[in-house]
Write a structure and sequence with these properties.
271 residues; globular; mainly alpha; 76% helix
C-alpha cells in the first residue's frame, strides 16, 4: 500500500500543479474584479454572450454529428480488415495528424477562398466564384476535418474487440444485416460512440483557431471570445475566466448526460 502511494506521488503533484491550481485561478478570477474584490458581476455578464455560446454549441454539435456519421462505417470497415490492410487504413487515418494543426487549416483556406481550387474548378464550367470561406459551413468543415480522427480511433478500438464469431452466430440464427447492426454491433460500440463524441465535441466547442481562420469575424465563437478577453484590446481576464467557468460547467453537464446514457445502454446489453 505504501509503495503504491509513493509511486502515485509524482502524478498527484502533476495534478495539483497543472489541474487544481489552474482551476482554482479560473474560479478566483471569475468571482473577483480587477481590484481583487469578490463579485458576481462577471458571471452575470456571461448572459450577454449567450448567442455566441449557442452558436458554438450548435456548430460543435453539427460537426460532431457529421464526424460520427463518417467515422462509424469507416471504423467498422477498418475493424473487419486483417493484416496489412488494417494497418494501412489506420495509417491513412493518422497521416493528417502528423501535420501541424495550423498548416491543415491554412490548406483549407487556400482551397475555399474565391481564387482557391474549388472556385477555379467551377470557373472552368462558367460558374461564378462561390462564397465558401468566412461562413459557418467553412467552420464546420474545418472542425470535421481536424477532429475526425478523434472520432474514428475510439470507435475502431471498440469495434475491433467485437468478435466475428458473434456476428456469424447472429447470422446463423437468422438475423439480417440491420438486425445484426441494431442488436449486436451498435450496443457493443456505444462506449466508442460516447468516447468519440467527447473527444470531438469538447475541442470543437472551445476552438478559436478554426473559427478565426475559416469563419472570419462574422462567425465569432466562444473560444474566440475567451481569447479576446486575455489577448485582445478588450483585455478582461476576470470576464474571460467567468466565460471559461460557464463553458466548463456546460461541458461537464453534457459529459454527465453522455455517461449516464452509456451506462444505461451497457446495462441493457448485459441484461
Amino acid at each position: 500500500m505504501f509503495k503504491s502511494k509513493t509511486a502515485a506521488a509524482p502524478y498527484l503533484v502533476w495534478m495539483v500543479i497543472f489541474i487544481v491550481v489552474p482551476l482554482f485561478l479560473i474560479g478566483y478570477f471569475a468571482f473577483t474584479n480587477a481590484e481583487g474584490q469578490w463579485t458576481l458581476e462577471n458571471i452575470s455578464q456571461v448572459g450577454k454572450y449567450m448567442p455566441v455560446l449557442m452558436r458554438s454549441i450548435i456548430l460543435a454539435a453539427i460537426a460532431t454529428a457529421i464526424c460520427l456519421l463518417i467515422a462509424y462505417p469507416l471504423a467498422y470497415i477498418m475493424s473487419r480488415q486483417v493484416g496489412n490492410n488494417q494497418r494501412l487504413l489506420l495509417l491513412l487515418v493518422m497521416l493528417p495528424m502528423w501535420m501541424n494543426f495550423l498548416l491543415r487549416t491554412y490548406a483549407w483556406m487556400t482551397i475555399l477562398e474565391k481564387t482557391g481550387l474549388i472556385n477555379r474548378f467551377l470557373g472552368l464550367f462558367g460558374i461564378a466564384p462561390l462564397n465558401l470561406i468566412n461562413t459557418p459551413g467553412a467552420v464546420v468543415l474545418g472542425m470535421v476535418y481536424n477532429y475526425l480522427p478523434f472520432m474514428i480511433l475510439p470507435l475502431y478500438t471498440i469495434m475491433i474487440k467485437i468478435s466475428d464469431s458473434l456476428i456469424e452466430a447472429s447470422r446463423d440464427l437468422g438475423a439480417g444485416f440491420f438486425d445484426i447492426f441494431r442488436r449486436v454491433v451498435l450496443p457493443l460500440s456505444i462506449p466508442g460512440i460516447t468516447a468519440g463524441i467527447t473527444m470531438v465535441f469538447v475541442p470543437a466547442i472551445s476552438t478559436f483557431i478554426i473559427s478565426r481562420m475559416l469563419g472570419g469575424g462574422a462567425n465569432l465563437l466562444i473560444g474566440d471570445l475567451i481569447d479576446l478577453q486575455f489577448y485582445g484590446n478588450t483585455y478582461n481576464p476576470n470576464l474571460g475566466s467567468a466565460i471559461s467557468l460557464v463553458l466548463m460547467v456546460i461541458i461537464l453537464l453534457c459529459m454527465s448526460l453522455l455517461n449516464s446514457f452509456d451506462n444505461e445502454e451497457m446495462e441493457d446489453v448485459l441484461l
